[in-house]
């Protein structure tokens, strides 16, 4: 019993240490993992603009593949080498994880390709929903380097959710990610 508690405590401390390692974000390819093309476009364009205006070289995945194409193409060696030549080594996967304020980050330490293959069940906004939880996963060399949840409360409309998301991401970008 004590050994189990020590093991679990060790995992929690390891997770906290991983989250505390500096991200030192200089460049990022932004991938919105949403089923609705308009949601994906809105998130990717908003985040690309936000990162660029804050001094982080950024590119939306929409500029890298055709509409409706499988996002797993982004994990292909040819595309990764092309992006590396352009100076991109960090990938950001943004996913709506639900409408619950109590959403927690999964303990699964997936690689980039596995995370791309996961589906997304939620849209940015649904009528009657109060809170939207976004998961931000940063990858380098195909490995997860940071995983965070950003919760946007008082979601009265799709525009409010996007506005609150921009505001919260701007704070994290300046304070923790750069």
Protein model, in words:
With 178 residues, this protein is α/β, with parallel strands linked by helices. It has one domain: Rossmann fold (3-Layer(aba) Sandwich). Helices cover 40% and strands 21% of the residues. The chain is built from 5 helices and 5 strands. Strands 2-1-3-4-5 form a 5-stranded mixed β-sheet. Helix 2 packs parallel to helix 5. The longest helix is centred in the last third of the chain and has 20 residues. The radius of gyration is 16 Å and the shape is globular. 26% of the residues are buried. The N terminus is likely disordered.
Shape: globular
SS strand fraction: 15-25%
Label the structural class. Answer: alpha/beta
In total, how many beta strands?
A: 5
CATH topology: Rossmann fold
Nearest-integer average pLDDT: 83
Residue windows where pLDDT falls under 50 for at least 5 positions: 1-18
* Distance linking N and C termini: 41 Å
In order across it, which strands form the biggest sheet? 2-1-3-4-5
Helix content: 25-40%
User: What's the CATH architecture name?
Assistant: 3-Layer(aba) Sandwich
Number of helical segments with 4 or more residues: 5
Compressed to H and E, one letter per element, the order equals HEHEHEHEEH
Q: What is the CATH first-level class name?
A: Alpha Beta
Question: Sheet bearing the most strands, described?
Answer: 5 strands, mixed
């Amino acid at each position: 019993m004590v050994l189990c508690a020590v093991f679990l405590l060790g995992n929690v401390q390891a997770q906290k240490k991983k989250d505390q390692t500096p991200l030192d974000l200089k460049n990022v390819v932004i991938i919105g993992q949403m089923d609705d093309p308009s949601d994906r476009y809105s998130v990717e364009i908003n985040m690309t603009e936000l990162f660029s205006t804050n001094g982080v070289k950024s590119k939306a995945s929409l500029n890298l593949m055709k509409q409706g194409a499988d996002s797993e193409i982004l994990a292909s060696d040819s595309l990764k080498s092309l992006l590396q030549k352009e100076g991109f080594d960090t990938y950001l996967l943004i996913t709506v994880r639900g409408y619950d304020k109590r959403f927690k980050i999964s303990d699964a330490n997936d690689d980039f390709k596995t995370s791309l293959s996961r589906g997304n069940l939620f849209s940015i906004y649904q009528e009657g929903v109060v809170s939207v939880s976004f998961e931000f996963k940063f990858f380098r060399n195909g490995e997860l380097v940071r995983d965070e949840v950003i919760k946007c409360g008082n979601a009265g409309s799709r525009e409010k959710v996007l506005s609150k998301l921009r505001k919260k991401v701007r704070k994290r970008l300046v304070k923790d990610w750069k």
